């Protein structure tokens, strides 16, 4: 019997969701790329095709237009002894389990390949980072210059020949005075305004180079890199077993348990490590508490951004966040840098007495609906807040996809994309919950998504508590038997992602047979969401620019890594 088509499946089974199709049709991909593919490889997560460096634009456009791969989720640059490689990880917003990787080898003496930016705008920042850290150059890129390091930096830190002990004398360029006569246009009122890199209103050490035409924003360019800490290089120097997961808590430190899961999922993939079902429930519950941490902070600081409300909304958010931090402190032993995940599971079971901890969690969940109502009364129902957020910071769905936006930023633009459902991991597929989507495409919609997601997290946690409470005592395995030293086979590669509070947090790992990765790449949701800020801010007032930035809920530890 032939496999029914998607419309037939939907008619036969109303619960059928085409997003859950397990894998891409490799035969169709091979036929589609037959003219371009010069080799094949198999990564753990996706089929991989080797293509020539001057065919990138044709191939990614073909995959987008003919096969529906509309999400360029990550670009990973790396260097071997005999070549450079630029890896393009592509998937689909409406079918996350369909993935493909393009491998673009370039010569060691001339590391130049074609840019994907004319096809996907998100490739702009991807390729600038690749040039900055590894040294690959991209032809047709509109603005190929460093993005994390100063322009005068010598060398590329992730290149094999980089001398880490060589001292750097960094000369910062002197900015021209925008008020000088040769910088003034008599026909306009354009001027340059520097916003940041001070912390207030920029959510970290972020510098916004803003061009104003009168009171309106004509252009804005986020200038990042002030908090760059070489996290990828540090992870490459750490061992799989114990030393990499703790680093992840420092990326998005406001909601960091999903970071731990992203690292664990990728390493468990290449090392073929199974996670006990009971540990999956613990992971799922803990991570949803972590998601709440991020959303409470995002909503409360956003009120501060929009109308300076420190005494009410901000402190309401801190009040509720403290309760969650108390719960996670009981569970993990830490209030911020949790390090609860271990490869193959978690570090320990619920604290004793179990009944007391479960009751504490349930008390919080019982009070949560009334607290969410308070947020709506004080925030989303506030007339000033509505005026400041409705129809400001508009990000249309196709623009959001072009920039690789994910998480509440994408779902606030009507994009029904959530990795927890679309590429299931943990215990999510066994629980009842909904993906929150709002169609407003503005600052207001993104706040609504986060508040509704708090309620969905509560549903997930409630079900996890029920399971943990009823789980037979002799079957509560919190961690599988993992070797003390892990040495995945050389050449094993994978890209795995989880749904963090900010969006798709992905990890690419290439093993070389040792107990540390040869390449470790972090795909930050904040990095991609921030790159779309110019699209949201053009034509708005400066105050709306601040609101749009706040609605992205970025953390510079995640942007810069």
TrEMBL record:
Annotated keywords: Cell membrane, Membrane, Multifunctional enzyme, NAD, Transport
Residue span, NADH:ubiquinone oxidoreductase 30kDa subunit domain: 50-167
Catalyzed reaction equations: a quinone + NADH + 5 H(+)(in) = a quinol + NAD(+) + 4 H(+)(out)
Subcellular location field: Cell membrane
PROSITE patterns membership: COMPLEX1_30K (PS00542)
Topology versus the membrane: Peripheral membrane protein
Domain of life: Archaea
SUPFAM superfamilies found in the cross-reference section: HydB/Nqo4-like, Nqo5-like
Listed GO CC annotations: plasma membrane
InterPro entries, A to Z: NADH_Q_OxRdtase_suD, NADH_quin_OxRdtase_su_C/D-like, NADH_UbQ_OxRdtase_30kDa_su, NADH_UbQ_OxRdtase_CS, NDH1_su_D/H, NiFe-Hase_large
Residue numbers spanned by region Disordered: 1-25
A single MF term (Gene Ontology): NAD binding
Pfam families assigned: Complex1_30kDa, Complex1_49kDa
Domain NADH-quinone oxidoreductase subunit D per the UniProt entry, residue ranges: 311-561
Xref: NCBIfam families: PRK06075.1
Family designation: In the C-terminal section; belongs to the complex I 49 kDa subunit family.
Subunit structure: NDH-1 is composed of 13 different subunits. Subunits NuoB, CD, E, F, and G constitute the peripheral sector of the complex.
Protein name: NADH-quinone oxidoreductase subunit NuoD
